[in-house]
């Protein structure tokens, strides 16, 4: 089955030779073709170019995209979208003056979600999570990373990971799984962090690896949660099973998590609201992608990742939603791209690069996702009629998407 899209006002993020990622000044460059066509066959992009070079207009399906922009679907490289219930009460508690930290210390926060998830059946958890997957696909996301970490017991962590696996089997969107058993200390281990970490390392991790339930390992490396020492211990154990790190660091405090990630060749270090000069320096000459989560900063009213400082220092940057019930109950990458421009002073080109090609790299998908390139997955967004691609971040909060194709399928 072939689909040909013609008269595209502007085709964004085109590549002849696939790049791994873009960094520093190159992030300001977004390769585009005006008045373009795009040809797909089944789940693959097979051709694209200028309308004047299109030889024949024959295909099973023909779409006229006059006045519309086409771009690759977003890659969301950091989410927690498998969760049970919501935490809207904590949202109201914060409006009334409690802090995120106070709520967590009172048994709310991650432990609140863990209790809910432990009491939810696998079928029900799947149902709730599938709804969110469908929602983000309609918002233009074509690949997503999903973490465990709201289970905090062997049984519940494995339940989460099995749900992630099933979602990947059922939906056309590509899903990558991350094991985040070390997300918080369960109540039973309140005064026994070593005991819980040992449970994660010796009881849960071997099963996760043996059953291929996750490709990546994560830990919340943060004051009051897990230390750099805990992080290194877990990453070492995970490396023995071939799991690559993608870790939560520098959300509230900078304690050396970035360096620990780099030491274990992390694919990404995520959050980075608090960045010291030495953290930026450490990331230079590493293969680790920094990921910013601006909707988390927005929702919690915490600082934004200093994107300007990082990109101006020559670093790459990826953007993700962090979709979760506590700090970011939203999986809208369009909002993330807008917020990155508005609040982090990223240019539209930088933000689009960060949400496509760099985000694909941050989940090990740069060979198949993140750009319009022959041989890559037929994953793309057709916008409504809009004046230019600047309009996407500029006209924030509005829906500019007309159609989404994932793996060649209209969503
Ligand atoms: O990435 N920071 C750690 N974990 C999640 C939020 C956890 C929660 O509040 O449920 C995050 O923001
Ligand atoms: Fe997160």
Please explain how this structure is put together.
- InterPro entries: Amidohydro-rel, HutI, Metal-dep_hydrolase_composite, Metal_Hydrolase.
- 4-imidazolone-5-propanoate binds at residues 87, 150, 183, 251, 327.
- Its cofactor is Zn(2+); Fe(3+).
- This protein is α/β, with parallel strands linked by helices and 411 residues long.
- The chain has two domains: 2-73 and 370-410, Roll (Urease, subunit C, domain 1), CATH 2.30.40.10; 75-361, TIM Barrel (Alpha-Beta Barrel).
- Helix content is 35%, strand content 22%.
- The protein has helices at 88-95, 100-105, 110-118, 122-138, 154-170, 193-210, 228-240, 257-263, 277-283, 294-300, 307-312, 333-344, 348-355, 357-361, 391-394, and strands spanning 2-12, 32-41, 44-50, 61-64, 68-72, 74-76, 141-147, 174-182, 216-221, 244-249, 268-271, 289-292, 318-319, 380-385, 401-406, 409-410.
- The strands form two sheets. Strands 1, 2, 3, 4, 5, 14, 15 and 16 form an eight-stranded mixed sheet that branches. It has an eight-stranded parallel sheet with strand order 6-7-8-9-10-11-12-13.
- Helix 4 packs across helix 5 and helix 5 packs parallel to helix 6.
- The model has no long low-confidence stretch (mean pLDDT 97).
- The structure holds N-(iminomethyl)-L-glutamic acid (NIG) and fe (iii) ion.
- Fe (iii) ion binds next to loops.
């Amino acid at each position: 089955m072939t689909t040909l899209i013609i008269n595209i006002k502007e085709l964004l993020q085109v590549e002849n030779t696939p790049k791994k990622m873009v960094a520093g000044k190159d992030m300001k460059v977004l390769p585009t073709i005006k008045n373009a066509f795009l040809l797909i066959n089944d789940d693959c992009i097979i051709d694209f170019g200028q309308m004047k070079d299109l030889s024949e207009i024959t295909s099973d399906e023909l779409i006229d995209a006059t006045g519309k922009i086409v771009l690759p679907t977003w890659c969301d490289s950091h989410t927690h979208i498998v969760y049970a219930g919501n935490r809207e009460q904590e949202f109201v508690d914060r409006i009334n003056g409690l802090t995120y930290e106070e709520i967590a210390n009172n048994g709310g926060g991650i432990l609140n979600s863990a209790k809910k998830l432990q009491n939810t059946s696998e079928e029900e958890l799947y149902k709730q999570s599938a709804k969110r997957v469908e929602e983000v696909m309609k918002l233009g996301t074509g690949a997503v990373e999903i973490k465990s970490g709201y289970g905090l017991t062997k049984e519940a962590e494995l339940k989460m990971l099995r749900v992630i696996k099933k979602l990947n089997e059922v939906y056309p969107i590509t899903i990558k799984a991350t094991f985040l058993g070390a997300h918080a200390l369960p109540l039973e281990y309140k005064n026994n962090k070593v005991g819980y970490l040992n449970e994660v390392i010796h009881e849960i991790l071997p099963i996760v690896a043996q059953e291929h339930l996750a490709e990546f390992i994560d830990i919340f490396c943060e004051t009051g949660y897990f230390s750099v020492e805990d992080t290194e211990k877990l990453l070492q154990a995970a490396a023995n099973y071939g799991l690559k790190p993608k870790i939560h660091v520098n959300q509230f405090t900078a304690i050396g998590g970035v360096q620990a990630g780099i030491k274990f060749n992390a694919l990404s270090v995520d959050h980075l609201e608090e960045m010291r000069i030495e953290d930026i320096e450490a990331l230079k000459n590493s293969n680790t992608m920094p990921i910013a989560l601006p909707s988390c900063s927005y929702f919690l009213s915490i600082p934004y990742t200093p994107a300007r400082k990082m990109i101006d220092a020559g670093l790459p940057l990826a953007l993700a939603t962090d979709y979760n019930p506590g700090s970011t109950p939203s999986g809208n990458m369009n909002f993330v791209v807008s917020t990155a421009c508005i609040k982090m002073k990223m240019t539209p080109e930088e933000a689009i690069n960060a949400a496509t090609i760099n985000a694909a790299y941050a989940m090990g998908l740069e060979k198949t996702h993140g750009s319009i390139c022959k041989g890559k997955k037929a994953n793309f967004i057709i916008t409504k009629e809009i004046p230019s691609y600047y309009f996407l971040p500029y006209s924030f909060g509005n829906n500019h998407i007309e159609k989404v194709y994932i793996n060649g399928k209209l969503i």
